[in-house]
Every structure is written in C-alpha cells, then in structure tokens.
Design a protein that fits this description.
It contains eleven helices and 16 strands. By secondary structure, the protein is an alpha+beta fold. α2 packs across α4, α2 packs across α5 and α10 packs across α11.
Length: 358
C-alpha cells in the first residue's frame, strides 16, 4: 500500500489515508482507508484479483467495533477459508460465503488463534516488556469493554430470573468471555465472469452502478428492523434506544461473541449472528462499477450520491485512478470538525471495482 495525506482534511493526522490500486485483464480496483477523527483505525479490507485459477476475485470491507482485531483477522483469513470449503469447489459460492463467515466465528473461539488476535489488537508501535513485540493488554483494562461486559452480565441475569448481578452488576473477573469481545461488520463481493455475489452482515454496504443508477447489493442490519428485532428477542436479548441490550447498534456481525452464547440455538438464531444475507447479480453491459464501503461513507452519501460521485470523477480528463477517486470520496465525507453529531467523523473505507470485460 502507498500512503497519502488528504490535502483538504482538518489536519494531517485526521486526513491521512492508506490507498491502493490494482488491475488485471478482468478487474480494476482502487481503495482508500482513513482513520478520520477516531482515536484508532478499526477497519480492514480485501482486494484479491487472483483468488483462484478461474479469474475469480474477492473484495470486502470490514468495519470493526470494540477493537480492530476481528476486522483484521477477517481480512487476513477469509479468502483462504472460503476457497477451502467444499461448497466453493462445487460452484456454490453464495453458500460458501455464508459458511465462511461462520467459520471465522468458530476460529475466533479457538485457543490456537488467541495470540494472533492479541497481536492484531495491540496498538501500533507499542512493544511489551517481554520482547514479543506486542503489548498484550487484558480486555478488562478497557473501560468500554468493562461496560459492555457488565451490560451483558446483567441482561443474562435478568433472563435467568434476576439475582444480584441483575441489579448492580458483578466483578469483571467473575465473568470471562470465551475470546475477544470485538466484532466487525462484513460486506464481501465475489466476482467470476458475469457472476457477482455479495454477502453482507451489518451496516457496511455494497452498491452497483448500472447505467448510472445505484443498485443496492445489500441491506443494512439494525436491531430496530422487525425481522432482526424478532430474532434478538426470541434469543433472549432486548433492544433499547436502537441498541442490543443497550450496547450494540447493529444486529449482525462477525465476532461479538458475548451475544452468541446460547447452547441451544444455531448460529443463525443467536442474539447477534454472523450469518449474512446474500445477493446474486448477473452482470450485464452497462454495469459500470461497484462500491463497497463502511457506514462512515454511507452516513454521508446515499447509494446514488456515491455512484454519482465516482461517475463524475471517471468522466474527467485525464481520468484519475480508482484509488485516487476513493481517496477523494473519503475527503469529501470527512467532517471539518466534530460538531455534527458524529457524521463524517467515523473511520472510512471504500473499495471501487470496475468490470473490464462486460
């Protein structure tokens, strides 16, 4: 990746971006990722244009919350886990994407992956005294995680009939989660020939520009949506102020393991599920490009506005690279200050893909 600094951001730190461009005979892509006003960058992405020997490609955006480790873990492992699945080799890529999301959830629980997750969670350039190169901080040193744990413990106590924990909470050490408490949204696009398959969990989003019009490739998953709310309440959770158990403001995600502890429910029916909706599209002449982005972009731009933005830049002469356009989109969405109720202040990641052989 190459780094660039936004020229019109509030300052060099806020406007710093990581960008990348790539292409082959079938695809051209560009991406940008910007920390923005947040204290840490928790997004990750995939841009793989040589997924297999059939000229397949995989693109994705993963928006972390409660930590960056799950988003980075997904970006590191999803492609390799996807292509190993029998359903993938049987050309059932939609099913394979769904299975791969659940597979990553399983991997987050395994002791063999705990060290890698701690390393991914560690602050950059912060070594520990042991000489391992990482500061492996306890999850209980993080005040936001403490609050989330206490909310989860009290909710669980209420479901089980009350008790002391339902009133004043409990000591953190009395309740150990089976792994990381972080999670991430996940929007992933598989492309082979004229077949486009998008799997989405959470509120990151995919959009296809077809003859200049934005075609939604995903739906956002929020706790207040009727089908999501039904699943949450059936599983023993509740929604307050648009948040699950008063904490999480989205209803599907990879990770967030404290919301997936029922031993009697399948993964698809947990309070929070990684199970993605899948949309399959037959690409056709007039399909110009696809945009995948996290909610930091969609908080500012509608699907159509994002398509119009990219299309306007593509029509310039000389035509800028897709990476340059992705950078400009992040710059456009970045708030000048933090006074606008958080809009434009989030991490921002966007991947733009052009289909070259339609």
């Amino acid at each position: 990746m190459r780094a660039r600094t936004a020229t019109d951001g509030p300052d060099d730190v806020v406007g710093d971006q990581e960008t990348d461009d790539g292409e082959n005979a079938h695809y051209e892509y560009g991406l940008a990722a910007m920390q923005g006003w947040r204290t840490e960058m928790e997004d990750a992405h995939i841009a793989n244009i040589s997924l297999d020997e059939q000229s397949s490609a995989l693109f994705g955006v993963y928006d972390g919350h409660g930590g960056k480790e799950v988003a980075k873990f997904v970006a590191r492992h999803l492609a390799e886990e996807l292509v190993k699945l029998p359903s993938y080799s049987e050309n059932k890529q939609g099913e394979a994407l769904q299975e791969s999301y659940l597979r990553i959830d399983d991997m987050l629980l395994k002791e063999e992956n705990r060290q890698e997750l701690m390393e991914l969670a560690a602050p950059e350039n912060q070594a520990d005294p042991s000489g391992s190169g990482y500061r492996t901080k306890s999850i209980f040193e993080d005040e936001s995680i403490k609050r989330r744990l206490k909310v989860a413990v009290r909710a669980r106590a209420r479901m089980n009939g009350g008790g002391a924990a339902a009133g004043n909470g409990t000591e953190e050490d009395d309740y150990q989660l089976p792994g990381t408490t972080a999670g991430c949204t996940a929007v992933t696009a598989f492309v082979r020939g004229d077949n486009l398959i998008v799997a989405n969990s959470g509120d990151s989003r995919g959009v296809l520009c077809r003859h200049g019009r934005g075609l939604a490739l995903s739906i956002d998953h929020k706790p207040t949506d009727e089908p999501e709310n039904r699943r949450i309440t059936r599983a023993g959770g509740y929604v307050v102020d648009g948040r699950i158990n008063g904490s999480l403001n989205l209803s599907r995600a990879i990770g967030d393991l404290e919301y997936k502890e029922s031993k009697t429910l399948p993964p698809q029916e947990q309070i929070v599920t990684a199970w993605p909706d899948v949309k399959q599209v037959k690409l056709e002449k007039g399909d110009e490009f696809m945009i995948l982005a996290c909610d930091g972009i969609w908080d500012v731009l509608s699907n159509q506005q994002a398509c119009d933005f990219v299309k306007m830049h593509l029509e310039r002469s000389p035509r800028p690279s897709l990476g340059r356009i992705a950078c400009d989109m992040c710059d456009h969405c970045l708030a000048k200050d933090t006074n606008n109720k958080g809009i434009g202040c989030d991490n921002m990641s966007v991947v733009i893909v052009r289909f070259k052989q339609l």
